[in-house]
Design goal:
With 95 residues, the protein is mostly helical. It is 77% helix and 0% strand. The chain has two helices and no strands.
């Protein structure tokens, strides 16, 4: 083999190795990033599911909040109201 052809062949091989190395490094980086994105997606999906459950519970509370039974319970327990004719007993505080 002639020296000039040998140098061209070695140079071509080096270029091919560098190009192949470039593609391998990029492939590995992309695979790593895809795994990260997949994990983030799974975490966000879990948070979304939890928020949907929370939303359903709040919507249920909202429906109950307009019912007469709920309004009466809040008026009696939290505001201390009584119906007409009822007597409200208040415990004396111990000193």
């Amino acid at each position: 083999m002639n020296m000039k052809k040998k140098h061209k062949w070695i140079l071509g091989l080096c270029v091919a190795v560098l190009v192949l190395g470039y593609f391998v490094v990029n492939y590995v980086r992309q695979e790593f990033r895809m795994r990260q994105i997949g994990q983030e997606n799974a975490q966000l999906q879990q948070e979304l599911d939890e928020l949907k459950l929370q939303q359903a519970a709040l919507e249920g509370d909202l429906e109950n909040a307009s019912s007469d039974a709920y309004i009466e319970r809040v008026a009696r327990e939290e505001l201390g109201f009584v119906k007409e004719g009822e007597i409200k007993f208040i415990e004396a505080e111990d000193e």
